[in-house]
Amino acid sequence: MQPLLRVERLYKTFRKSKEQVYALKEISLQIARGECLGVVGESGSGKSTLGKVILALERPDSGEVWLDDVPLLQLKGAALREQRQHVQVVFQDPNASLNSKMPIWRSIMEPLDNFPDVMPPFLSGKRTDRIGLAAQLLELVGLPLDHLARYPHELSGGQRQRVAIARGISLNPKLLVCDEPTSSLDVSVQAQILQLLKSLKQTLGMSYLFISHDIASVQYMSDRMIVMKDGEMIDEFASSELTHQDRHIYTKLLVEAAS
């Protein structure tokens, strides 16, 4: 079966103290439909840069990204904008996607307002006015309806991240990129957000690219994992094989450090 996402030979460099440093070096990967691919690595490994290139928020020096055989990096303007509905993101800081001056229901509806012809199948046939759609999305992420009229500063960090997730799934994207979605949250709240993301993936049938420095979270969320270090992909395996004796020495060190 044709993969949903194909990434071929991505390279990206930047200058650091007059030296050329690789943020991405010959990165190739695939994500199947309905699969979660986890990306783990320490700070500076290139994992977030990889996510931004797949989202077409950054351009690589070379390489290609295909989503359903559409070459994302070759698109511009209206053609690229049209494809953005199919790849959405949940960032580490939910405040980056929430307007402090907007009530929660308006923030949730922003993606659907940008693509008025899109109606996700899990929302169709129900109340379809704007507040009604926002209410359905709020329920999907486990927040009470009285939060619709609140503002971001009135919510906890975990609640704001649930709103960001509601935005992320609102267009029923083919791929949801989760870039450190729990790292700024308390440990108890982290577990709840991971459970929510896993449940939504199963319910809605989305594919995920799940990026984190927390190897335990990545294993919990993912079907397969890749390990990055200094811009390179140094290990790739089924999540159930994380502690296999054949793992790369760096992967073993990450596992040991998390124990």
UniProtKB/TrEMBL annotation:
InterPro entries found in the cross-reference section: AAA+_ATPase (IPR003593), ABC_transp_ATP-bind (IPR050319), ABC_transporter-like_ATP-bd (IPR003439), ABC_transporter-like_CS (IPR017871), P-loop_NTPase (IPR027417)
Segments passing through the bilayer: none
Gene3D superfamilies in UniProt: P-loop containing nucleotide triphosphate hydrolases (3.40.50.300)
Domain ABC transporter: 5-255
Record-linked Pfam families: ABC_tran
Signal sequence coordinates: none
Organism superkingdom: Bacteria
GO molecular function: ATP binding; ATP hydrolysis activity
GO biological process: transmembrane transport
Alphabetical UniProt keywords: ATP-binding, Nucleotide-binding, Transport
Family (UniProt): Belongs to the ABC transporter superfamily.
Name by which UniProt lists this protein: Peptide/nickel transport system ATP-binding protein
Organism: Paenibacillus algorifonticola
Record lineage: Bacteria, Bacillati, Bacillota, Bacilli, Bacillales
